[in-house]
Every structure is written in C-alpha cells, then in structure tokens.
UniProtKB/TrEMBL annotation:
This is RNA-binding protein. Pfam families: S4_2. Keywords: RNA-binding. It comes from the Bacteria. One of its GO terms (molecular function) is RNA binding. SUPFAM superfamilies: Alpha-L RNA-binding motif. It comes from Amycolatopsis bartoniae. InterPro entries: S4_RNA-bd_sf.
Length: 68
C-alpha cells in the first residue's frame, strides 16, 4: 500500500487519482470509474467527485493507495 499525502483535509476522488499518478486527466478517471475499476474502502465507487479524507483507501486494480 502506498500513502499519497494531500495538503487539505479532503480531496475529490478524481483529483486524488491524478495526484497519485494513476491517471493523466480527469476523463481517464471517469473511464476507470465507469468501468467499475475503482474501490474506496472496499466498496465500488463510480463518483469522480466523491470526497476522500485521510485514512481512506482507494484501490485501482492491484494498486492500493491510502489518503495521507
């Protein structure tokens, strides 16, 4: 699991995926979400605007990222 440090109390999922270098642009994030490839805290997520807080775990394929 990789920690991705954010400078704010919360961050939107689409922004987090870009910050973590999982995607290059927001449209790539949308595709991942529409295909069901993203989970937040073990639950499938399809909202790019989902607010994440420190400690949340985002899983994309085999990659686990924790909001730090």
């Amino acid at each position: 699991m990789r920690d991705v440090v954010v400078s704010t109390a919360s961050i939107r999922l689409g922004q987090f995926l870009k910050l973590a270098n999982v995607v290059d642009v927001g449209s790539d994030a949308r595709t991942l979400l529409e295909n069901g490839d993203v989970r937040v805290n073990g639950e499938p997520e399809d909202r790019r605007g989902r607010q994440l807080v420190r400690g949340d775990v985002v899983t994309v394929g085999d990659t686990e990222l924790r909001v730090g």
